[in-house]
Structure formats: C-alpha cells, structure tokens
C-alpha cells in the first residue's frame, strides 16, 4: 500500500510519462509528411504523365504503375536470390516482367513464389551473368582504359559495351580488352564499337522544329547539284546558327520575292527528313516529310499546322495564299496567311519553323501579326528556282 | 583666412571645371535613332541582347547595329518606346524581329531614319538587328 506521498509521486510520474509519450508521438507525426495513400501508390499527376509518356490511356497507365508497384515489392527478394541474374519490366498497356535466371534453373518454383498479379505476366530467360557480374567486368575494363571510352552495361542483352569515340579509340580498347580476357571468360560479352553519338555528345537528330539561334529550323534540304544535305531557317534570321550545340555553317540565303529562306549544312549530327509535331505517337514528337504541296494546291479554309520554337505545335486555317511579306525586298504576294482563333500562334523565335499538312511540307514561318493570331508563311513557291529541294527521305 | 586671392582661385577653378565639362559634352554626339516603318506584320525571329551605344552614337545590340520598333523616340540619352517604356544603353532587351543584311534593312526604315542611316549602316556592316517588338521585362 502506497503512502499519500507515494501516490502523489506515482500520479506525477504517470502524468509526466503520458506527456512525454504524447509529445513524442506528435513529434513523429509532424516529422513525417501526412500521406494516407499506401506506399507507392501513384498520384493523378504521375498517372497522367505516364500515360502521356507511353502513349496509353490513364487507365492503362494506372495498371502499369500498379504492376510496377508489385514488382517493386518483390525486387529485394529477387535481387538476392542466387538463381536470379536480373529482372526488368516492360511498361505499357500490357505490362510484364522478365526474370533472368542461371542456366538450368527450374523456373516453375520461382514462378510459384511470385504474387498472383506477377505470376500471370512473367517470363524467364536464361542468362550467364548477373547484373552485378557484368558491372564488375565493366569496372575492370574501365580501369584499364584511360579516357576516351565509355562503358555501358546492358544486362538484358548480356553485354558490356565499350563505346569509343573514334576508330583508333576502338583499336586501343580492343587491345586492352583482349589483354583482360584471361581464359576467355568474357567472350561474347564485351563488345567494343565506335559510337560517336553516345560518347562524344548525346545523339542528335537535326530536323525541322528544333530551336536554332533565335529561330526555328524548317525542312531538311538537299543541294540539287552536289547532293549535300542541310537544313533551313528563315533568311531574316542570323547567319550564325547552331542547334543543340552543333554548328550549322551558313551556305546561302534568299530574301527576295517569294523567298525568305537560308540554308545551312551541319557540322555533326544526322539530318532527318522530319519535322517536330509535338505529338507522342509511333513517331514520337516528329513526323516524316515525304513530299511538298505547292501553293496553288493549298485549300483556302483548310487547316495547316506548324511548329515554332517559341509557340510550339499548332494548327490554323489558311485564309490567304496571296499575302506579301513587307520585310522581304521585292516581295511577291505568294505568302500564306494562317489564322488561329484560339491560341498564340506566332511570336519571335518561330521564324523558319516548318508549316505542313500531314507528311507534306507547305512552307516556312516567316512573320506574324502584332496580335500573334496570324502567321505569315513562305509557301513552297519560295523554293522555286533555288538549288535546294526539301529532302523527302 | 580666405582673402581676395583665395576667392579668385575658387572662381578660376569653377570656370575651368565648367569649360572642361562643356568640352566633354560637346564631344559626345547625340545618339542616332533608327526606327522601322510601322507595318501590320512583323518578322518572327527572336532578337535579344544588351543595348550599347557606339562611339559614333549608333545603338547596337550585341555589337550589331540596332533598328528600333516603329514609333520609338529619343528621350535624352534613352529611347522611349511607343508604350512609354524607356531603354538606356546597357539594358538587356528581348523581342521579335529579324537579323538582316544591311542592304535589306534600308527599305524597312521609316523615312526619317533613312536620312541618317548611312552613319550606322555603312560599309562593313554585315548584319543588322531589326527589333519590331520588345517584350516587357
């Protein structure tokens, strides 16, 4: 039996302890962000972004993200299973999992160990090396190669790629790799090749719609006498042009009559007969130009689209095929007026951008009205008589 | 103690200062403002950079002769745009227009600018920055 003093002390201790527990629990609650959703559940924004990225519906995106969550929950177990070499999933409308296993592994027990959601959509493939083993081979090679090469591990294809920037770089890398391949342990795994695109700079395709020194690139063109490929922008753009860090040497410009165009070659990169269209489809964010449409074949009241580096992709209604361009000396009324009633259609920076209908080139952005709703485009007449033609392949 | 002699010295110093200032001012030519004709349409290249004033009084944009939007006027050493904004040498501007060969610019200038354009678009000028609109900063 406790004395009165003892009871009071117990009461005080209890109150103190309760207060401490209360404070501690509050501190934890404040430290951690409040999130009522289960771990890994995607937000609406994620779902929308994934749907856009993969070109699928938001419902499919949600299913793909759910599948990813299920794989993620198994990832640690799979990573430490000695039978498993690697695993990866294919995101999309029908997400599925691939598990790499050591040769001779019985896969059914492994399948049975997976949750039902994954079991149905998992396939197995035999692999000689695990992700970690390939990474170790890559690290060993990296130590023996002194600069100029990049190592890339591709576990799905069981490759360690040595990407050199030049032919001499490849020779050097081959010598080093052969010296490392004791007992042929790495045969068929290491691949040495030149890949200027990957190692010198990101692979760059040059095509219409790309930003270029205050303007927009138009169509890829071909010089009719030399066959040299190049790209265009408006003639009223600066002669010094570059895109994505690639210099575009100036060749010639025509700012007269129905022409407002200049052409440039490219010091590197690949000139494609593409134009940007801002649409994710089977040709993500670009389309191929396979022909051109002459001015007089254009339809008044028809819709035509453009891409400008500043205003992006948009379509409008052709309301005139006989506009002049006041900034072009001896301008002839062979420019096009395309109107948008809804969007900001043309601003500084769009000049030179491609105007097209489907896969046909129609013209190049030349000017705008002050209210930015009307675009003035050079028509294909502007290419008439020039030593360059729009490349269609 | 400041006597008559000291006062005379002060006056002399003030006079010398005033004369020197006057001489300096006289050596600074007034800026030459070239403006483009008002048109319904404008070129759609992006033109941007820092405005400077050359020793001969020509405005330049990143070292290229600069033609200002239609309706721009001089206001002392600054340029007042049609919307009332003023731009001084050293300011950074961005807008729409074009970069044109000097020979192609003459026809775009308003008549008043054509009269003294040769001072800024003379021989040796390769490209000219023609700014038809300037974005609000």
Description:
The complex is a heterodimer of chains A (393) and B (137). With 393 residues, chain A is of the alpha+beta class. Chain A folds into three domains: 44-126, GMP Synthetase, Chain A, domain 3 (2-Layer Sandwich), CATH 3.30.300; 131-200, GMP Synthetase, Chain A, domain 3; 202-393, Thrombin, subunit H (Beta Barrel). Helices cover 26% and strands 33% of the residues of chain A. Chain A has eight helices and 25 strands. Chain A has helices spanning 4-31, 44-54, 58-79, 107-112, 116-119, 131-144, 167-180, 196-200, and strands spanning 84-90, 96-101, 122-126, 149-154, 159-164, 190-194, 205-208, 211-212, 215-216, 220-223, 229-233, 241-243, 246-248, 250-256, 259-264, 270-276, 286-288, 291-292, 303-308, 312-323, 335-339, 354-357, 360-369, 374-379, 388-390. In chain A, the strands form seven sheets. In chain A, strands 19-20-21-24-23-22 form a six-stranded antiparallel β-barrel. The longest helix of chain A is centred in the N-terminal third of the chain and has 28 residues, at 4-31. The termini of chain A are far apart. The relative contact order of chain A is 0.08. Residues 11-40 and 196-202 of chain A have low confidence and may be disordered. Chain B has 137 residues and is α+β, with helices and mostly antiparallel strands. Chain B folds into two domains: 1-28; 45-134, no CATH class. Chain B has three helices and nine strands; from the N terminus they run αββββββββααβ. Chain B has helices at residues 4-27, 102-105, 111-116, and strands at 41-43, 45-53, 59-61, 64-67, 73-75, 78-80, 86-87, 92-101, 127-134. In chain B, the strands form two sheets. In chain B, strands 2-3-4-9-8 form a five-stranded mixed β-barrel. A three-stranded antiparallel beta sheet of chain B has the order 5-6-7, with no helix packed on it. The model of chain B is unreliable at 18-26 (pLDDT under 50). At the A-B interface, β23 and β24 of A face β1, β2, β8 and β9 of B. β23 (360-369) of chain A pairs antiparallel with β1 of chain B, so a sheet runs across the interface.
């Amino acid at each position: 039996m406790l004395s009165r003093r003892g009871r009071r002390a117990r009461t005080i201790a209890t109150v103190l302890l309760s207060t401490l527990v209360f404070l501690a629990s509050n501190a934890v609650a404040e430290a951690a962000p409040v999130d009522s959703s289960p771990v890994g559940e995607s937000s609406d924004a994620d779902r929308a972004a994934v749907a856009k990225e993969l070109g699928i519906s938001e419902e499919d995106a949600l299913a793909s993200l759910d599948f990813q969550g299920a794989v993620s929950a198994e990832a640690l177990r799979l990573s430490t299973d000695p039978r498993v070499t690697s695993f990866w999933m294919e995101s999309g409308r029908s997400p599925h999992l691939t598990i790499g296993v050591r040769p001779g592994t019985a896969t059914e027990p492994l399948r049975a160990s997976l949750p039902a959601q994954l079991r149905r959509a998992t396939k197995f493939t035999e692999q000689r090396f695990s992700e970690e083993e390939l990474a170790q081979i890559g690290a060993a090679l990296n130590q023996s190669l002194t600069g100029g090469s990049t190592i890339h591990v591709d576990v799905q294809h069981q490759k360690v790629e040595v990407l050199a920037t030049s032919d001499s770089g490849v020779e050097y890398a081959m010598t080093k790799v052969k010296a490392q391949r004791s007992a042929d342990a790495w045969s068929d795994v290491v691949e040495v090749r030149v890949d200027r695109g990957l190692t010198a700079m990101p692979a760059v395709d040059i095509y219409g719609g790309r930003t270029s020194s205050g303007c927009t690139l138009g169509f890829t063109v071909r010089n009719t006498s030399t066959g040299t490929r190049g790209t265009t922008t408006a003639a009223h753009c600066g002669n010094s042009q570059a895109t994505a860090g690639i210099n575009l040497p100036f060749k010639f410009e025509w700012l007269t009559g129905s022409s407002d165009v200049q052409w440039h070659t490219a010091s590197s990169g690949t000139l494609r007969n593409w134009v940007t269209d801002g649409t994710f489809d089977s040709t993500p964010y670009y389309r191929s130009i396979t022909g051109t449409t002459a001015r007089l074949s254009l339809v008044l009241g028809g819709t035509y689209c453009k891409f400008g580096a500043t205003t992006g992709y948009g379509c409008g209604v052709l309301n005139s095929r006989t506009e002049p361009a006041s900034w072009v000396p001896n301008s002839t009324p062979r420019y096009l007026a395309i109107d948008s009633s809804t969007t900001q259609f043309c601003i500084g920076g769009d000049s030179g951008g491609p105007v097209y209908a489907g896969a046909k080139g129609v013209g190049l952005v030349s000017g705008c009205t002050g209210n930015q709703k009307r675009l003035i485009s050079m028509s294909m007449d502007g290419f008439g008589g020039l030593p360059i033609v729009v490349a269609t392949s | 103690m400041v006597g008559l002699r000291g006062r005379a010295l002060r006056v002399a110093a003030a006079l010398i200062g005033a004369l020197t200032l006057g001489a300096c001012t006289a050596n600074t030519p007034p800026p030459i403002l070239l403006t483009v004709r008002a048109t319904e349409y404008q070129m759609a290249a992006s033109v941007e950079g820092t405005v400077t004033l050359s020793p001969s009084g020509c405005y330049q944009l990143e070292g290229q002769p600069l033609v200002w939007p239609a309706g721009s006027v001089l206001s002392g050493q600054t340029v007042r745009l049609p919307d009332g904004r003023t731009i001084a040498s050293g300011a950074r501007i961005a807008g729409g227009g074009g970069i044109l060969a000097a020979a192609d610019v003459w026809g775009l200038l308003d008549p008043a600018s054509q009269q003294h354009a040769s001072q800024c678009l003379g021989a040796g000028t390769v490209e000219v920055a023609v700014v038809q609109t300037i974005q609000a900063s």
